[in-house]
Amino acid sequence: MIVATLKPIDEILEKASSYRRILVLGCGTCATISDWGGMKAVRQISEMLRMARSDRMQTHDLKEFVVQRQCEPAFLDPLLNEIRSIDAILSLACGVGVQILSERFPDITVLPAADTHFIGTISNSNVYREYCRGCGDCDILQTGGVCLVARCPKASLNGPCGGEDEFGMCEVDPKERCVWIQIAERLTVSRREGFLDKIVTPKDWSRSRSGRTMRIPDDGITDESES
Ligand code: SF4
Ligand code: SF4
Q: Which of 8, 16, 52, 70 is the most buried (most CB within 10 A)?
């Protein structure tokens, strides 16, 4: 999932204060799983907008809606009715959702309500952790399904740096166990210890997010949304 968090409510209210007719728009996938992008969150934010405005003796004209995914243009068709007579969309989605809305409805201001952080997951203790950095050359079979690019601060591809403490915690990030210990455990339990002897060759970084917009397929054709 894309991990994002809601901006501070004061910032959201400030951004929305210049607009009267607002569509508060949730996103039914990652943002809903994260508990801040579904209908419940849409209603809570709408209520806060109403209260903020009523303090100033003015009212917001608010609509509330949730689409399955703001990041896919095909899911935005149901909005064609909703966006009639609105000044702005307050988007409860990641940065991709905000950009796709802006492309699809260029005459309407899209206000981002969230800060987008990384690709990751949520643990039992409600902590979000980065698990993938989208390097474009995935070889985590070699490492027992553990990503070194995203989870080792030194991206140490061919073994531990040796800096872990006596409890096996990472020297750079003492809140996390050294990923190489986790890799060794994973490969041992699955009887693939032999992988630890293999030299991991350098990644093909031309397929990574190294300073350009990633496209798939990358055939050099620019589609109309990019022109
Ligand atoms: S190796 Fe690359 S693609 Fe695979 S999980 Fe790690 S960052 Fe993501
Ligand atoms: S202690 Fe382990 S996880 Fe931390 S930087 Fe070194 S190899 Fe990577």
A: 70
Strands 2-6 and 114-122: antiparallel
| 152 Cβ below 6 A of ligand 2 | yes
Nearest listed ligand to the Cα of residue 156: 2
Contacts of 174 (CB under 8 A, 6+ apart): 165
Angstrom distance (rounded) from CA 24 to CA 111: 10
Nearest 5 degrees, angle CA 33-CA 69-CA 14?
80
Virtual torsion, Cα 184, 186, 191, 192, nearest 10 deg: -70
Sequence-ordered list of residues with C-beta below 8 angstroms from that of 70, at least 6 positions apart, any chain: 25, 27, 76, 91, 93, 94, 96, 97, 98, 100, 101
pLDDT tens readout for residues 163-172 = 999 999 999 9
Please answer whether residues 130 and 149 qualify as being in contact, where contact means their C-beta atoms are separated by less than 8 angstroms: no
- Whether ligand 2 lies within 6 angstroms of the CB of 33 is answered as no
Q: Quick one: pLDDT at residue 58?
A: 63
Which residue lies with its CA nearest to atom 3 of ligand 2?
Answer: 178
Q: pLDDT digits over 184-209, tens only?
A: 999 999 999 999 999 888 888 888 87
Q: Say which amino acid occupies 190.
A: S
The model's pTM: 0.85
Nearest CA among 163, 174, 191, 31 for reference residue 96: 31
List, by residue range, all CATH 3.40.50.2300 domains of the chain.
Answer: 2-118
